[in-house]
Amino acid sequence: MRIILITICILFSCIFIFTRVSNAENYYKLSAAQAQSIPLKQKRIIAVSHDDSFLSQIKLFGTFAASYTYNLARPYASEAYPLGNYNGNYINNYKVNGATINEFDITISKNPFANGRNRFGIGFKVTMDTGENIQDVGPYTGSYSYYTEPVYNRPLYGFRQLYISFGIPIGNGLTIELGEKNYLIGFESYNLSKLWENTYSPITAIEPGELTGIFLKYPFTRQLKMVFGIALTDNAMVPLDRYPTLEYIASYKPFKFLKFHEGIVYGAENFIIYNNNLYQDNLNRFFYNFIDAKYSFCKYWTAVLDYEVGLNGGINKSIVYNHNINIEQFNSSINNYPSYLISTSNSTFDKSHFSGLAFYIHHYSNLNIGRFSQTIREVSVSDPNGMWEEASVPGIACHYFDSTLTFGYRPAMKIFKHVQFRLEFENQIANRRVYGNGNSSQNTINTMIVYTFKNY
Fold first, then answer.
1. pLDDT digits (tens, 9 = 90+) for 304-315
2. For residue 23, what pLDDT band results from cuts at 50, 70 and 90?
3. What are the phi and psi torsion angles at 169 (to 5°)?
4. What single DSSP character describes residue 139?
5. Rounded mean pLDDT of 261-269?
6. At 22, which helix (H) or strand (E)?
7. Nearest to 108 by CA among 72, 166, 160
8. Is the pLDDT of residue 456 over 90?
9. Beta bridge partners of 211
10. Residue 360: count of CB within 10 angstroms of its CB
11. Which residues of 147-161 are buried (b: 16+ CB within 10 A; e: fewer)?
12. Overall pTM > 0.90
């Protein structure tokens, strides 16, 4: 009920803003005859109000995505596998053989440089999301239960982005952002309308999610743009400690058909979970790096190669012994962390690491009856200490392979202008029996409908 009320309030707010913005732009939608009948002085007044009005510069964007997932292994909960009725290593569609609302998000934003990069400006971005899509990367909001409970018990709503921005007319235009914002997750996006697939790559297990702090954006050239940030926390509005998290992102497009991304996060929050209690870990050593290349060849083809790696310093020895934590029965009720993951130095990264390589090839064609697309995704993920993936067992080396084939169709009819239908087949293989009821593989079929709306 609370989610419904929040959603209704957001919808009414968006309708109000959309209506006000539309009224401010009515002059630009008049017929030629109507425009000619307006006095020149009044035309100038309307034009100025359009260019400089705060409301006219506000943009609204929304996405709704719903799907049905069928797992051919038909796993079910049992005494030996109490979590057997969930799709392993899935974020936004973990329910076995069930329909779900994956995403319903609304973004309201204003560019601080809406009046040009030679003028000081103020902007903002607010993204409210509901659905299973937010659970793995949602905000912490000060509740330890976010970390001590399984991912499928987390709240189904939250803010993905909540920050204000300032446009400083220095050089090519410096943007300063203050608040909570998404971190890039390699090549993929948290918004399903911007994905080629229905599901996320298994590499998402390593990605930081959201950062809260101060971020500087600057376009050095038209081809090179960079972001530098300092955050107090990862996935949290309330930090666990006072160690800063450093962020760096670069986007480089040397040619129209080739684009590179690279991002680094260092020093994210560390903590220990034991008997449903959360303990701050002052090692606080986390390193994440991604780099991807997007190559558009021919007219309708695109290929992407994405590599990601994560390194962690393990677990602080003093935290374990000062809280009388039993190493033999460490962390959760069903898994044990072995003693070799306990760090004796706060400068090592060899206790826990993760890496993944993803390859995408995408094709689309425009026909009289609509737009068709096909996407192949191949992923290889290594979790040698079992510390990252949802399905991994701590202390046990796991390797995952993911193959996905997705078909998309956007009908040519006007009523389906912003709607896409997708059909996806996915095969996941692991070197351990981590899926469902002790399976080393799982095959799923997913159907999805994605709808987008905007006022620009």
1. 999 999 887 777
2. very low
3. -75, 65
4. -
5. 83
6. helix 2-24
7. 160
8. no
9. 181, 234
10. 22
11. beeebeebbbbbbbb
12. no
